[in-house]
Amino acid sequence: MLINVYPNGNGKETGRSLSIFVHHVDSNNRTCSERVMPRYTIRIKDQSNNLKHHQYAGSGIWFSASTSDNWGWPSFIKLSSLNDPNKGFIVNDCCVIEIELAVQAISS
């Protein structure tokens, strides 16, 4: 799996949100017909003591390297929220993005 992060947004959310997308990539053969169903949690860590992370979790979506299948969030978090110093997402110019990814199923 490949995770694309657009710090200043993507598409209609450019300049408004941080965007995150998940893609299936076969490192050996981009025409592979294998499909993968992952279970995932993607979060931006609250680095303050509040520990109110911003996250999305899910499963049940099939990905294949042979197509342009991708899934994600054009508006994972609004830039105004991400940059709010009271929310603790950015500390010392650093943002922590944590990704948990597990394969639930594989299909040929």
TrEMBL record:
InterPro entries tied to this protein: MATH/TRAF_dom, TRAF-like
- Domain MATH stretches: 1-101
Q: Which Pfam families match?
A: MATH_2 (PF22486)
- CDD domains for the chain: MATH
Q: Which domain of life is it from?
A: Eukaryota
Q: Which PANTHER family match?
A: TRAF-LIKE FAMILY PROTEIN, UBIQUITIN CARBOXYL-TERMINAL HYDROLASE 7-LIKE ISOFORM X1
Name used for this protein in its record: MATH domain-containing protein
Per the UniProt entry, what species is this protein from, by scientific name? Answer: Castilleja foliolosa
